[in-house]
Predict the structure.
Amino acid sequence: MKISVVIPVYNGERFLPEAIESVLGQSHRDFEVLLVDDGSTDGSRGIMQRYAQSDARVRFITQENRGRCEAANRGLEEARFDWVVRLDADDVFLPRKIERQLQYLAEYPEARVIGTLGYFINEEGRRLGFIGTAGPFDETGFRKHFENGVPIRFIHSSVMMHRKTVLDADGYRTEFRQVEDMDLWNRLAERGHLLLTVPEPLVLYRIHGKSVSIEKKKEQELYDAWALERMRRRRQGKEEPSLADFMDEQERRPWHEKADSRRRYTGEALYQKAALYYAEGDFIGMSFMLAAAAVVHPAHVLKRIYERKIYPLLRGF
């Protein structure tokens, strides 16, 4: 089966060659690579041009800087094949990733989005922990997620998606900054499409100071909460709130609810800082931040330690 791999790029020169090489080195060889330059101002454009000139499977597309969502949608529109694989410019595929996803698709031919598990890595590529344990891994798990109102999430760089299905749902919605992927997956689920995760770590997700999840943590939390509320309202047959209305509703909550939200947000932010210190090899800073996170939001810390360290040991990864 022919596959389109879309890599949106904005000022990604540091890790971009490794990302591209991880695609070119896949065990599944029948693909095209679309490098979508979103108006980069560093050396990314030259890197992409060199790969496009040296490998006929690589296509280089450029546009003015319009944002990550627009670059991803451009890749979907330009893709030539029915299935599109997404990769961010600082992440890495393991060699059998696409092969294993196609095998999973053969097992679940009704699936329209297939993600995978993965590993966190630091700037040097050292594996730090596990990511993506929530599933769903089969049709029963998918139904439970949907019926219980559990949002479906994937490691964005792990997904393989059916192009027409995504475009029919209008692709990524640009108003959902930083969480446009989560918004898309759950809209697809509401349309009756099956979304699954291969229960194997097949992608390396890089954590560093310029990661979107680090650099724009507060903004990401806001848009995540808004997207979840809109998901709940849709499923209740109610009107979806605008961002302004949602923020106003949040501000009018009782003081104890707002205090609990701030506590949870602070604990999660402290844990994320601890993870960044760990990635950078600063174990003193990590210990301090982890202890602070455990005091503020112990449930989050315990859950993450289980997911990142204990679960992979139990699964033999």
Observations:
- Strands lie at 3-9, 31-38, 58-63, 83-86, 92-93, 111-121, 127-131, 160-162, 194-206.
- The chain has a mean pLDDT of 93.
